[in-house]
Amino acid sequence: MAAAERWYRRHAALVRITHWINVVCFTLLLMSGLQIFNAHPALYVGERSDFDHPTISIRAHLSENGLVGETAIVGHSFDTTGVLGVSSENGQVSSRAFPSWITIPSSQDLATGRRWHFFFAWLLVLNALIYLVWGIASRHFGRDFLPSRVELGHIGRAVREHLRLRFPRGEAAKRYNVLQQFAYLMVVFVLFPLMILTGLTMSPGIDSALPQLLTLFGGRQTARLVHFAAASGLALFVIVHVVMVLVSGVWNNLRSMVTGWYDLGEPRTTDVR
Amino acid sequence: MSGDRLHRRGLLKALAAVGGLALSGCDRVASEPRLRSVLDAANSLTYKVQRLLIGAGRLAPEYSEADISPAFRGNGSTDPQDEEYLNLADNHFADWRLKIHGLVEHELSLSLQEVRTLPARTQITRHDCVEGWSCIAKWTGPPLAELLSRAGVKSEARFVVFHCADTLDDGGDSGADPESIRYYESIDLIDAEHPQTILAYEMNGEPLTVRHGAPLRLRLERQLGYKMAKYIMRIELVRSVTELHGGRGGYWEDRGYEWYAGI
Questions:
Q1: A37 contacts in B (CB within 8 Å)?
Q2: Residues of B numbered 104-143 whose beta carbons fall under 8 angstroms of chain A's beta carbons: which are they?
Q3: Structural domains in chain B?
Q4: Alpha-carbon distance B223 to B127, whole Å?
Q5: Does any CB of chain B come closer than 8 Å to the CB of residue A39?
Q6: Do the bridges between strand B202-203 and strand B134-141 make them parallel or antiparallel, or are there none, so unpaired?
Q7: Which of A24, A36, A48 to probe the B interface (max B CBs under 10 A)?
Q8: Domains of chain A (ranges plus CATH)?
Q9: pLDDT-derived band of residue B1, with 50, 70 and 90 as boundaries?
Q10: pLDDT, tens digit, for every residue of A227-268?
Q11: Mean pLDDT of B138-145
């Protein structure tokens, strides 16, 4: 029965629920995190802050043309007026590292930013634990995330097809392709664990219980730098992920992440033969 | 597939609209008191979990002389202009006395010289500001536990309150009279009796400067900088902090920050 084979149950209920909780948590954590970053918009390597030599900093200074936003990365400065360092807030030019439209709350308010950040951090961690335990117990990770030898051999072809925005249909669409597998492995097993561990390393309370974390990351300020870098990595993933969702059949993708059902397409004659 | 494209454009517009609504809504939602109490639940959870993990005795990491920051940033007030304080500083704190009172068996009143003769602890620790930066310094002073045992803490006491000499300029948003916004902080007895909780009169081997809280400041190494009261005048043992100014247990706590600052 071709009609029955057309619909494929792509995502388990637990994946769908934890995915959307994660969307909410990550969005709010990113925005409240940038609010927290704005309180001291400079990152350092080591245990302590070497205020004169930040690795990354976003500052504002006054020039003859008015306020200038300046982003410096290991000594290289860029004029980022309008977005980073200096941006408009309620129609007024304001010196702030990240602009008001991307922070929670929009105005400078570290206390509220922290309150939101820690609440959604707890929610994210609990959500992630449920997802991890289920993913291991159901063999979701082993079955769907680990590329087979054949899939590994097709990396070149997968990259070429992605660049031409051609995506698998039919039987081949049932599995994550090898690029998806790499991206999801990276997000689930590298970037999110890094976020959580570096976040904990910044806590003076946790540092007294687990000083090994400081050794692992090379100090509290390095942990803060890695926290920022890993968050940037996740933000980059989200951008690519959303673009891929949009160009590879947005309704089909959204439906499968809401109801679970994915449309494999009309069976072609070659498929039924 | 123009239909698909139309859908796509419609979806993007819808997403942008929802996003915009969410952004403008966030600020209104963020200041909603009922939501605040829900979000605050996360902080109580953090407090309970950290208390379980670090208990009463786990020490904050200590560092070597080589790790000491060449330039230690001052947190909070760095140059109090309160007349009472300026008079004390003019006289090198010879007239300053540390008062310990409230729920204690015997009130204490100690001169700086008397504080300096108490058994002291020296520690090189990292100071983490709530803003995100860290500095390292060497601190010397008597453990708070030493003073508390001399005063004799009554069994009903639960918190140690620090009353300070400095009026911190918070941008004038509190509307309170200046007397009531002299800095104040509170900690629980678990932290008060922690071996690294000291009242420092020396920083990096030198007498504490005005910038860093002279003549006496608190070091509370498992929490953030704003807990570490500077310019201490009185230490009061209380049953609850609800009577203290805004009722949340500290100057910054009454301005939205968490009372437990272990994170």
A1: 132
A2: 126, 128-136
A3: 60-255 (3.90.420.10)
A4: 9
A5: yes
A6: antiparallel
A7: A48
A8: 2-41+103-272 (1.20.950.20), 42-97 (no CATH)
A9: very low
A10: 999 999 999 999 999 999 999 999 999 999 999 999 998 765
A11: 98
